[in-house]
Specification:
The chain is α+β, with helices and mostly antiparallel strands. It folds into two domains: about 270 residues, FAD/NAD(P)-binding domain; about 160 residues, Elongation Factor Tu (Ef-tu), domain 3. The strands form five sheets. Strands 9-10-11-12-8-13 form a six-stranded antiparallel beta sheet. Helix 1 runs parallel beside helix 11, helix 2 packs parallel to helix 11 and helix 3 crosses helix 4. The two termini are about 25 Å apart. About 45% of the residues are buried. It binds flavin-adenine dinucleotide. The site of flavin-adenine dinucleotide has 32 residues, from helix 1, strand 1, strand 14 and helix 11.
Length: about 425
């Protein structure tokens, strides 16, 4: 996705591009063909609503920027209500044909196993980056392990948390500043609520591992339901322990268990549920997590999940041009930069292609402003996200700077989302105009 889009954008800006691909010679467990733009799992680009949905807005921006992935998806669209579903085989064949017939693009098949020290490169090798290259990247970036089974915890929109139930407090009020002493959001549970929650966790539908993968979890990163299977009290002595916390609404009541949420971005609009990495199926997650007091009406910016993933700690390793700080001739793009999903990956390819082409042409080009969907994503991965807890991210409105004069909370949501998308479209159009 990202490599195809990057090549297309740079080639359209007059740059000669060599597009490297290791398939079909060297495969991955998920890809089936040697085509560019192969969708490895679902055939959906998710919502196409560019007024009320952040991924729909990303579609809009990619179309405005003459994106190959979006224009080809539009040509091979399948009926799917408000979503953009794609006929995957003709889609990938058309992406491949467009790239191969571009006068500025040549292709070179074979695995790249090193980070080259000369030339300008964009590495868009995805969540299934080949092991040899993964090792080379890990060596360069000082990361011990880059590829692992990624257990992701769900992320909740702060505005959807019931603050009449939840309260802000760090365990034992730890921290020097008030901000640190109130770094966590706490949701209390009675014994009955805890028992019902454990029952629901144990009964929930879980995702099985894909063929070819073997489960190897990081220590301290066990899925929540695996912990529950080890004993009904395990969670109460682990991520749900109630000690060191006093319910700010009812100080006299001692909670039997507490679920903690930690801020996930600098804006404070997103919170992740601490220690709640899970392999429950999406539908089951929404049901089970809404049993947590304070989260009954939670909206999720991202649900949890487990799959093999290779991604950089981009907030520390990449500059705002997506270049590796230690080797500025190398850019990264796509899922390997810590975005998640076909559309987000292709969008980061679009930016990397344009930024690299501008640099080669001696032109000054910055990324789009943070008020746009592409800008919000690139700002998140190259600095806005907390580096310590950095996890792959879908585009969502929680990444956007707040709007002045529009009310918060659930009631104002429609108006607010329209405000975000109107502002983004204007700012993105201006950014594009600045380049022509
Ligand atoms: C099992 C699985 C299921 C997924 N399901 C979905 C889903 O349903 N919906 C969704 O939106 N996202 C899904 N994703 C995430 C999805 O992979 C990304 O959204 C998207 O494909 C990433 O795009 P990308 O361009 O970064 O990587 P990819 O599309 O994977 O492209 C990377 C390319 O680099 C090539 N490559 C890797 N290493 C080398 C090397 N050393 N030398 C040369 N070439 C190399 C690969 O062959 C591949 O063609 C899934 C991921 C996995 C692993």
């Amino acid at each position: 996705m990202a490599g195809s889009e990057a090549a297309w954008q740079a080639a359209n800006m007059g740059i000669k591009v060599v597009l490297h691909e290791m398939r079909p010679e060297t495969g991955t467990f998920a890809h089936q063909t040697g085509n560019f733009g192969e969708m490895v799992c679902s055939n959906s680009f998710r919502s196409d609503d560019s007024e009320q949905n952040a991924v729909g807005l990303l579609h809009w921006e990619m179309r405005a920027a003459n994106g190959l992935i979006m224009q080809t998806a539009d040509q091979h669209r399948l009926p799917a209500g408000g979503a953009l579903a794609v006929d995957r085989e003709p889609f990938a064949e058309a992406v491949t044909a467009a790239l191969k017939s571009h006068p500025n693009i040549s292709t070179d098949y074979g695995e790249i196993a090193e980070l080259p020290s000369e030339g300008m490169w964009i590495f868009a090798t995805g969540p299934l980056t080949s092991p040899a290259l993964g090792e080379a990247i890990a060596k360069e970036t000082g990361t011990d392990r880059l590829a692992f089974f990624d257990a992701i915890a769900p992320i909740v929109y702060a505005e959807s948390i019931d603050m009449d139930v939840a309260w802000l407090q760090s365990r034992y009020d730890k921290g020097e500043t008030e901000e640190e002493q109130k770094a966590y959001l706490n949701c209390p549970m009675t014994k009955d609520q805890y028992e019902a929650f454990i029952d629901a966790l144990l009964a929930a539908d879980k995702t099985e591992f894909h063929e070819g993968e073997t489960a190897g979890y990081f220590d301290g990163c066990l899925p929540i339901e695996v912990m529950a299977e080890r004993g009904r009290e395990t969670l109460r002595h682990g991520p749900m322990k109630p000690i060191g916390l006093t319910n700010a609404h009812r100080p006299e009541e001692k909670a039997y268990a507490v679920v903690q949420l930690r801020r996930d971005n600098k804006l404070g609009t997103l919170y992740n549920i601490v220690g709640f990495q899970t392999k429950m199926k999406y539908g089951a997650q929404a049901e089970v997590f809404k049993m947590i007091p304070g989260l009954e009406n939670a909206s999720f910016a991202r649900l949890g999940g487990i799959h093999r993933n290779t991604f950089l700690n981009s907030p520390t390793l990449l500059d705002d041009q997506m270049r590796l700080k230690s080797r500025p001739n190398i850019r990264f793009a796509g899922q390997v930069t810590g975005v998640e999903g076909y559309v987000e990956s292709a969008a980061m390819g679009l930016l990397a292609g344009r930024l690299a082409a501008a640099e080669l042409s001696g032109r000054d080009m910055g990324p789009p402003p943070g008020s746009t969907a592409m800008g919000a994503l690139i700002h998140h991965i190259t600095g806005g996200a907390e580096a310590k807890t950095f996890q792959p991210m879908n585009v969502n409105f929680g990444l956007f700077p707040p709007l002045d004069g529009i009310r918060g909370g659930r009631k104002g949501r429609k108006e607010r989302y329209k405000g975000y998308t109107d502002r983004a479209k204007e700012d993105f159009s201006q950014w594009l105009e600045g380049q022509s």
